UniProtKB/TrEMBL annotation:
Name by which UniProt lists this protein: Germin-like protein
Domain of life: Eukaryota
The keyword Magnesium belongs to this UniProt entry's keyword annotation: no
Annotated Mn(2+) binding sites: H110, H112, E117, H158
Subcellular localization(s) per the UniProt record: Secreted, Cell wall; Secreted, Extracellular space, Apoplast
Oxidoreductase is among the record's keywords: yes
Organism this protein belongs to: Brachypodium distachyon
PANTHER family: GERMIN-LIKE PROTEIN SUBFAMILY 3 MEMBER 3 (PTHR31238)
The Cupin type-1 domain, residue ranges: 60-213
InterPro entries in UniProt: Cupin_1, Germin, Germin_Mn-BS, RmlC-like_jellyroll, RmlC_Cupin_sf
Signal peptide: 1-23
UniProt entry keywords in alphabetical sequence: Apoplast, Cell wall, Disulfide bond, Manganese, Metal-binding, Oxidoreductase, Secreted, Signal
Reaction(s) this enzyme catalyzes, per UniProt: oxalate + O2 + 2 H(+) = H2O2 + 2 CO2
Gene Ontology cellular component annotations, sorted alphabetically: apoplast
Length: 226
């Protein structure tokens, strides 16, 4: 009987540890932990500001997310509000972004290594999709209209594209991390500093080295994601 009880206790502990291991951000152990960005102490995230000095402004930002943004040469602009812009988000496991799309603009294929994303279309139409991991690499896509919602699972490559050649589109995204991160695939592969060897990339993509050299010579635009 004791052996059986020990087994179930061990199983419960393993389940608890596993749940904590897959959580996107650590759960808070107090009401809030406003980031102290001036502290010299290095931790996973930010140390807490003395709660006696916390005020409402630590949880507020006049972000003007209702106003349109100028888009870049790929036709998008991401205005991200994460812990770097709003200290009160520290340990709360959430951030938000406004995404503007020019006609035929796109938020190019990218991934968030630390967050799941849920996207809501506010204006216009978006063609969106994501690709599952190896070995299947299944492509799942959908056309979204105003008011529609779509989820991009954590870590998977995804994109949004405005198929309308005449009208812009706008979306709001919530992400399950105070600092979701973003890796734009083309920028990372062809715009790294220093550059990845063209021998490596030519072999990986099965193309001539001249093609890789041309791609690496392009200006890889950032669109506001951190």
């Amino acid at each position: 009987m004791a052996s059986s009880s020990s087994f179930f206790l061990l199983a419960a502990l393993l389940a608890l540890v596993s749940w904590q291991a897959i959580a996107s951000d650590p759960s808070p152990l107090q009401d809030f932990c406003v980031a102290d960005k001036n502290s010299p102490v290095l931790v996973n995230g930010f140390v807490c500001k003395n709660p006696m000095y916390v005020n409402a402004d630590d949880f507020f930002k006049a972000a003007e997310l209702d106003k349109p943004r100028v888009t870049n040469k790929v036709g998008s602009n991401v205005t991200l509000i994460n812990v770097m812009q709003l200290a009160g988000l520290n340990t709360l496991g959430i951030s938000i972004a406004r995404i503007d799309y020019a006609p035929l603009g796109q938020n190019p294929p990218h991934t968030h290594p630390r967050a799941t994303e849920i996207l809501t279309v506010l204006e216009g139409t978006l063609y969106v999709g994501f690709v599952t991991s190896n070995q299947e690499n299944r492509f799942l896509s959908k056309v979204l209209n105003k008011g529609d919602v779509f989820v991009f699972p954590v870590g998977l490559i995804h994109f949004q594209f405005n198929p309308n050649p005449y009208k812009p589109a706008v979306a709001i995204a919530a992400l399950s991390s105070q600092n979701p991160g973003a890796i734009t695939i083309a920028n990372a592969v062809f715009g790294s500093k220093p550059p990845i060897s063209d021998d490596v990339l030519a072999k990986a993509f099965q193309v001539e080295k001249g093609t890789i050299d041309w791609l690496q010579a392009q200006f890889w635009e950032k669109n506001g994601q951190n």
